[in-house]
Amino acid sequence: MRLLKEHQTIVAGLGGKDNIEIVDCCATRLRVTLHQNDKVDKVLLESTGAKGVIQQGTGVQVIYGPHVTVIKNEIEELLGD
């Protein structure tokens, strides 16, 4: 249950479900394309264990480490609901 809450917090930190266009990842980073970059809450994302948040245009990279694939899959599942 803790992970579910954490993933909901990540979605909120990215500006909510409606703000997320694409979710992807590489080895250590969650890569997200957003509709509105100004809705990102870096402090909230860092509270979920992110080591950093990089924003460029409508793209955001949130650094989580090697377990990022699990986070990506759970967020995709949340967005599909």
Automatic annotation (TrEMBL):
Gene Ontology CC terms: plasma membrane
Active site: C26
Tree of life domain: Bacteria
Span of domain PTS EIIB type-1: 4-81
Listed EC numbers: 2.7.1.-
GO molecular function terms attached to this record: kinase activity; protein-N(PI)-phosphohistidine-sugar phosphotransferase activity; protein-phosphocysteine-sugar phosphotransferase activity
Keyword Lipid biosynthesis: no
Keyword annotations: Kinase, Membrane, Phosphotransferase system, Sugar transport, Transferase, Transmembrane, Transmembrane helix, Transport
Top EC group: transferase
GO terms of biological process kind: phosphoenolpyruvate-dependent sugar phosphotransferase system
Record protein name field: PTS system glucose-specific transporter subunit IIBC
Organism per entry: Staphylococcus aureus
